[in-house]
Amino acid sequence: MKKSKTGRGRQKSGLLPELMAAHQKRTLLIRLLSLALGAATIGQAVLLAQAVQRIFVEKAAPASLIAVFALLLGVMAVRTLLAHANGRIGLRIAADAKKELRARLLRTLAANPLITARQGQTGGKVSLALDTVDEADGYFSQYTPKMIEASIIPLLILIAVFILHVPSGLILLFTAPFIPLFMALIGIQTKHKSEEKFEQLARFSGTFLDSLQGLVTLKLFGRAKRQEREIERSSLSYRDATMDILRVAFTNTFALETIVMLGIGIVALELALQLVVFKNMQFHTAFLILLLVPEFYNLLKNMGTAFHGGRTSLGAIRNIELTLAENGIRETQTAGQSDNQSVRGNTVTGSTMMGSTVTSDVDAASDLGASRGDQTPAFAASQEDSVPEKSFPPAIELSELSFHYGSDAFTLNAGSLLIEPGQQIAIVGKSGSGKTTLLHLIAGLLPPSSGEVRIAGRALTQASEDDWFKHVTYITQHPYIFAGTVAENIAIGTDRDVSRTEIVQAAEAAGLSALAAELEHGYDTIVGDGGRGLSGGEKQRLALARAFLKRPSVLLFDEPTVGLDLHTERILMQAIAELSQQATVITIAHRLHTIRQADRILFMEQGRLIGSGSHEELLDTLPPYAQMVEIQRKGITT
Amino acid sequence: MSEFSLFFRAMLKERKDILLSILGGFLAGIAGVVLFSASGYLIAKTVFVPPLYTLILLTSLVKILGLVRAASRYGERLFSHRATFSLLSRLRTDFFARLVPLAPGILNRKRSGDLLARIVGDIESLQFYFLRVAYPPIIVVSVFLATVLFASFFSIWIALLLMLGMLITAFAVPAFVRIGQHKTDGRVRRQRAALSSETTELLYGFIDLKVYGRLQQCEQALLAASGELTEAQQSDALHLLRGQSLHSFVTFFVSWGVLVLGAFLIANGSMAGVFLAMLIMASMTVFDESAALATLPAYKRDSAFAANRLGETFAAAESNTDGKADSKPAAKLERDAAVSVELDNVHFRYAEDWRPVLSGVSLQFEAGSKTAIVGPSGSGKTSILELILKLHAPTEGRIVLNGTPIGELDAEDLWSRTNVVLQAGHFFRGTVRDNLLLEDDSRSEQELLNVLEQVNLPGKRLDDLILEKGENLSDGEKQRLAIARALLKSGRLWLLDEPTSSLDYVTERRVLEAMLERAKDDTLVMVCHRLAGLERMDQIVVVDRGVIVETGTYDQLMQIRGYFYEMKQIERQMIGSFDDAEA
């Protein structure tokens, strides 16, 4: 409860309160069940004490106790069922929360992995969606129900003991706070200690994996034997460092258990004194208290264990929250920007060109329309007007385009620029100058931080991108091969139904027929993950086959730098030439041949588009460009 | 299962800690039982108004037992955890020793990183086998047996009932959970693997998916897979919960049984009433110890799975390299002479690949000659070097070094006579000096610094720290350090796999110069990814798709205008792709 309040206070409510809010009914149910569970716990003790009193003190015949026995067994059964029910609800909450967390994570990952690609490894993201979410499980399935139980049942027991016998109740009341206190102490001290030893632990724990990874190197340098000793040494050092931390925790646990045991001992002593010396208590009451006391302490100890588990889970949840927040900020940022853009569109371009004001209004309307789902006929017509089929290849217009990645310093400034239909564009620059980022922005694969890309005069937004991608093919340096057959991998290039003949034709045009003949099931052989592995050249050609099938009007192409076989090289050159006849081609160019043939070269340096023009023009007017061409030549020829 | 036997051998070596922890656990358990029994007896005794001193005696006993319990618990925890971590250390060294002869065969796959991480994880989950699977039943059974013995002094029937309770909680309930698990066994793992590979596919294939409009579809599939995983995990957890609930009901039921049985025994006079409260307390406490058994099947399954998987991984790798270890070939290369290498109609295919890497390669590297191997990526260049290094055996054909077939050569001797730069040489956490992997301590400080200077790393100090996998080094620095490593070896055969691919031209030339100077009387084979500076090589070998396309000197190859010539033409066209990241 407290948490959700502070969460709301922080303006943007946290992930956890948000998740828990969805389960208010369930937590309420756990509370009610815990009340009943407490009652059953006390009831069990009462009946047990009652039975012993009758048998032992009053010497009752077993036959007269059948009702008590039956009732006791019934209460025990109810108690088991109630605890089971609480556990089940906890699992249900955990399952729902995990599903929700995973869905959110996957959605943000799917929304745009290119943005975060620079910051994290793919493996890390996969483990976030799997392992970290599983780590969060404990908070919902264990911590939540256990904490609720621990906050209700001991209180009930305490009240019961107070009613039965005030001094015993006081003993419990005074010793109880020590338990959470020591639990907290354990937490703080171990955390402190492990932070102190963190560097050491990291060093020792990594040695094994490090050695395995470098095994070939170790063997070649004759060091494998020596490394075995090194592993032993570091593992033992790891053990000692960890034991230092654990010793602190165990010492505190020792103190805690001593308190519990002494508490029980004091209660027992005090009860005995009451019984023998003061003679003001019945056996029944004393035995009942004796039965209740361990239940009381056990529950408090459980709370401690649950608390520790909960902290690990909380860490995991915080991790997820951070990832979500990073991407979330970006989403709201881009959303805010598109608003700004339409405003700017009205003020800046509105004065010069009425047309563009109209289009940005249409954009705003199209966003609304998309969310409403029903479009007025007039609007549908206007949308068709804005991007008619025949306008492909379209003019591509960059307007004050800039982009920066979330966490690092790299910024891209492309300014404004018009790419006319059918033009051949080459993007040139050193590695790290922002060529790929620029191409991704033009393609609509990255949301611009400011400015916009206009396709045939119409801003490229999320709403219009499906339309746009129908006409685009992007051949990367490392085309991705999906797990599936060769034919399926080619057919992914288009969303229309394609015949087998079309697929085979595209494959042949891309020079894949020899490969198909080599594979045991031809085009029906499974490739990609878990299937036949393909060489780099074959992957390139498969990507070409996708393009041949699609016949895009805009072709984006990241020219391979090294390592292609001549066969693929030749096919690639031919294919691009052929595809470019009906398409605008934008290439990240590495070959002088491509660059010379381009209608226009975009030269990038340190994230800025510093010049554009033909090869000859740039040689004359842009010294960094001339220098780059010159250096490369010198490097290779001498 | 040899993995478990390996584990038990390791356990045997840690027997002192293990015995101490068992002792601690037993004492703690027994002290608890006695403590509560004594309290029950104490209260019951008061009914007869006993002399005060018996009460004082009993309560002191209760206090002392409380301390004993806490103290032995402490000891138990300490020793059992120590044993666990010592076991881990032994397991690691044992598995490492087993892995050494299997490398690089086991490491050659594309996902060797995953495989290694998996091995590390599996060994780690084996370490908990002791703490969570082997250990708890020992404690439970011993504490129970002692309690049963204790109870048998008062009533053999109650003792038998406790015995029955132990059998049910320690064996029947876990067995019940295991049966439930069998049904869902592997489902969670399969769903996890499916979700993981689909997520990976989405992340790597993002551009293609987005451009081809398949993103939505993929996302839906992912969400569905996530849902199924959660369902599977849920049903797994429910099984465990059911086991726990069953367990707690059995403990209640046994206490109830003690009560009812006690009532009848007291009624027919075969047991004194004063012991009833005590026995009930004892039966309730003794089950505290067995709570850990309810979750045991989950851990047991995990470690069994880990052991199985390790077993399979190793068995598969060991069967691939069989026969090698039995008779270690003893032939050695002669010292102080350059090595000649000959490949005769060599075919090679990686075990897991569907087509050969090399088909019918015949090559001659004369003693003292310098050869460059060029060709597109994936053409088999690296495999030629690996075969000469005896890291793999050719599927067909002969490799001969200095007239001796490679099969008869002692691999370790061969490696000590070879100066190697691998494409992805490994760097370990440690200092620069550690990472030079020196053969002995005979090199002076100054010599080492000179070598660093030669490879253009004058800024590095020998005591600079390098992180795992050299992650604090740039690719160029790694390559230069790898070359420094080779320069410090005294072999007469140089095998270099794209040693300078991440360096800029100026540095590349300088470093190659230093290397060629050192190797001027030695045999050198270098896989090159660039075609610059090959004029001085005695021989250039052009490989494509596992076949030798051309061989000859630079001038010869340029003259015939074949494959090499055309590759050179393409390279001349290249712009903006070779600049060093650090430049």
TrEMBL record, chain A:
Protein location: Cell membrane
Membrane-protein topology: Multi-pass membrane protein
UniProt keyword ATP-binding, yes or no: yes
All residue ranges annotated as the ABC transmembrane type-1 domain in the record: 32-312
Extent of Polar residues compositional bias: 331-346
Coiled-coil intervals, chain numbering: none
Region annotation (Disordered) ranges: 331-356
Composition bias, Low complexity: 347-356
Transmembrane spans: 61-82, 147-164, 170-188, 245-269
Main subcellular location: membrane
UniProt entry keywords in alphabetical sequence: ATP-binding, Membrane, Nucleotide-binding, Transmembrane, Transmembrane helix
Stretches assigned to the ABC transporter domain: 396-631
Protein name as it appears in the record: Thiol reductant ABC exporter subunit CydD
Source organism of the structure: Saccharibacillus kuerlensis
TrEMBL record, chain B:
Localization per Swiss-Prot or TrEMBL: Cell membrane
Domain ABC transmembrane type-1, first and last residues per copy: 19-288
InterPro entries: AAA+_ATPase, ABC1_TM_dom, ABC1_TM_sf, ABC_CydC/D, ABC_transporter-like_ATP-bd, P-loop_NTPase, Type_1_exporter
Domain (ABC transporter): residue spans on this chain: 341-570
Keywords: ATP-binding, Membrane, Nucleotide-binding, Transmembrane, Transmembrane helix
Membrane topology, as annotated: Multi-pass membrane protein
Main location: membrane
Transmembrane segments: 20-44, 50-72, 128-150, 156-177, 249-267
PANTHER family (alphabetical): ATP-BINDING CASSETTE SUB-FAMILY B (PTHR24221), TRANSPORT ATP-BINDING PROTEIN CYDC (PTHR24221:SF653)
Protein name stated in the entry: Thiol reductant ABC exporter subunit CydC
Organism (species): Saccharibacillus kuerlensis
